[in-house]
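Run log, item B.
One chain of 75 residues. Sequence copied directly from the ordering sheet:
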Amino acid sequence: MKKLSKRGKINWFDGIKAFIMLIGTSVMGSLIPIISTGKFPEKEQLVLILGTAIGAGLTYLLKQLRTDENGQVFK
């Protein structure tokens, strides 16, 4: 199976990578308040972290839509 998708298309590998970005962003976003305050983030902070993580995943997918099968963006 091809790992690089054609321009304007997203394959399963892109979805998996976006999910990894989402999980990584939420873990990193959760660790910052825990380290700085020593407490688990409150509900409002968790909603903000989740929104940021979803934004990171969507941004990755949007970038993949403009990337061709050679890995070049906007060419």
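Observations after the first pass:
- The chain has one domain: 12-65.
- The two ends are 24 Å apart (CA to CA).
Flagged for discussion on Thursday.
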